[in-house]
């Protein structure tokens, strides 16, 4: 399994992602060891960034409706970024909840 594509995920949401440099050519257990769990972003900070993207999208939507926005593409891009960021954050949250649930099942 080659994980070169992971580097392309970085940058979808500011501060969220896996640094692709240094991961090329690693496979299996080596790749898992290369990404340390403590190197990630604080989840609360990630939520703040998602909220910022949504606020920016909302502000551009208001400008588009009032006619103050020169390029509607700016709103479209901001809206897409906010949607992708929200989906990514929800997916990470869901995986964390699943992991917690699985750990609790193992303890019972």
- C-alpha Rg, in Å? 18 Å
Number of helices: 3
Estimate percent helicity: 55-70%
Return the average pLDDT rounded to an integer. Answer: 75
How many separate domains? Answer: 2
User: Which term fits the overall shape?
Assistant: rod-shaped
Total number of strands: 0
N-to-C terminal Cα separation, in Å? 34 Å
The assigned structural class equals mainly alpha
Description:
By secondary structure, this protein is mostly helical. It folds into two domains: 1-40, no CATH class; 42-108. 61% of the residues lie in helices and 0% in strands. The chain contains three helices and no strands. Mean pLDDT is 75; it is low at 1-10, 16-26 and 28-36. Belongs to the FliE family. This is Flagellar hook-basal body complex protein FliE. It holds the Pfam family FliE.
In short:
The protein has 108 residues and is mainly alpha-helical. It is 61% helix and 0% strand.
Key features of this structure:
108 residues; mainly alpha; cell projection; 2 domains; 61% helix; rod-shaped; disordered N terminus
Topology:
Blueprint: H1 29-34, H2 43-66, H3 72-107
């Amino acid at each position: 399994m080659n994980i070169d594509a992971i580097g392309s995920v970085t940058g979808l949401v500011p501060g969220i992602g896996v640094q692709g440099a240094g991961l090329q050519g690693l496979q299996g257990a080596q790749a898992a060891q290369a990404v340390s769990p403590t190197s990630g972003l604080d989840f609360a900070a990630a939520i703040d960034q998602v909220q910022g993207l949504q606020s920016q999208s909302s502000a551009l939507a208001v400008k588009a409706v009032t006619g103050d926005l020169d390029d509607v593409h700016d709103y479209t891009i901001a809206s897409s970024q906010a949607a992708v960021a929200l989906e990514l954050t929800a997916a990470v949250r869901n995986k964390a909840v699943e992991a917690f649930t699985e750990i609790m099942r193992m303890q019972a």
